[in-house]
Amino acid sequence: QLSQFMNTELSAFYFDIRKDALYCEPPSSAKRRAALTCVEHIFRCTTVWLAPILVFTAEESWMSRYGDHPEKSVHLELFPDIPSDWRDDNLAKKWNSVRYMRSVVTAALEVERAAKKIGSSLESTPTVYVNDPYLQTSLEEVDFAEVCITSAIHVLKEPAPQEAFRLPDTSGVGVVIKRAEGAKCARSWRVTTDVGSDPAYPDLSARDAAAMREIDAMAP
After folding, report:
1. Which of 14, 103, 125, 161 has the highest CB neighbour number within 10 Å of its CB?
2. Angle between the 30-50 and 15-24 helix axes, to the nearest 10 degrees?
3. pLDDT tens for residues 147-164?
């Protein structure tokens, strides 16, 4: 179960989505700091859980994070107590719906990539037609472009047109893929219309230029 969790929930989903925030958001970004907090909890839990099985690997991972000190060995740690209020069944149901819709977008992107119409998913701006009230509600307060790893995304609450991509085992969701408009940011690889808007960073989008200005200001 732990291996399945690490492969499907972390590597193929959470880490894949959150790497943009971790690498490209400004150091002061609340999104980036929240992601770092989550990663810290994930690291501590998974390393301690794996320690009785992967004895040396867990110890090497722990020391690489906290230093090579015998008194800080992972094998001296207790299994963490997970707060009961971290379990939120309604939130889990919401994200199952988001992942359901994401699977349709991902499949549509693969079709376009196979046809060599796009390379990276960041070269696209999908239009997602969602004709299901609960699925529509599930996307509230969700950056769906970030979840789908596209440069932008348009969500329309209406039936999909005939030419839209659908999956045989899904209903209520259709996708039309278009190429993203603008230029490619040299830092995040997102394709946006605001690349070069900051003269000091002509190859970067406005978000990434602001991040680099903050980072440069921190340099000694």
Report:
1. 125
2. 130
3. 999 999 999 999 999 999
Q: What is the pLDDT of residue 219?
A: 85
Q: What is the pLDDT of residues 76-113, one digit of tens each?
A: 999 999 999 999 999 999 999 999 999 999 999 999 99
pTM of the predicted model as reported, rounded to 2 decimal places? 0.90
pLDDT of 15 higher than 80? yes
Q: How far apart are CA 147 and CA 169, in angstroms?
A: 21
Using H for helix, E for strand and C for coil, what is the string for the chain? Answer: CHHHHHHHHHHHHHHHHHHHHHHHCCCCCHHHHHHHHHHHHHHHHHHHHHCCCCHHHHHHHHHHHHCCCHHHCHHHCCCCCCCHHHCCHHHHHHHHHHHHHHHHHHHHHHHHHHCCCCCCHHHEEEEEEECCHHHHHHCCCCCHHHHHCCCCCEEECCCCCCCCECCCCCCCEEEEEEECCCEECCCCCCEECCCCCCCCCCCCCHHHHHHHHHHHHHCC
Token representation of residue 25: 């958001």
